[in-house]
Design goal:
Elements lengths: L1 H13 L5 E2 L5 H8 L6 E8 L2 E8 L6 E10 L2 E10 L7 E8 L4 E9 L5 E8 L1
Antiparallel strand pairs: 1-8, 2-3, 3-6, 4-5, 4-7, 7-8
Amino acid sequence: MTGKLAILASAASAAGLWFVAQADPLPDLVSDHIRGGEAACGIDVSQTSDGLLLTAWSAPSRTRTWRMVVTQRTGGGGFDIVQEGDVPPGDGAVAVSDLLIDTGADFSARLTAWDANGDPVCRFGDRV
């Protein structure tokens, strides 16, 4: 996960944005997220000519459902974009959502994934 955060920081820095990334401080989820060397979920950020592309992903071997909340703030207020669904089958990590954000916007994104029993397995959050 540290490598991904460094890439996120580098992309945000190249875009001239303030960047801080922090995993959700829930000890049970963090230890489960790391156990076995396979991350259960995450959000990758990449720079495009149109803005920043957020790609939420999850590991079908560990998760069954997901929910991502992106809060975008503008000068006069803000709004939430909520996406959720079932994790599609696949090997390794699979993309569950792609969302394009304007590089001039201030936003935060949080992804939560649950296992087949409905227990939270992973929480991942970034603020760019």
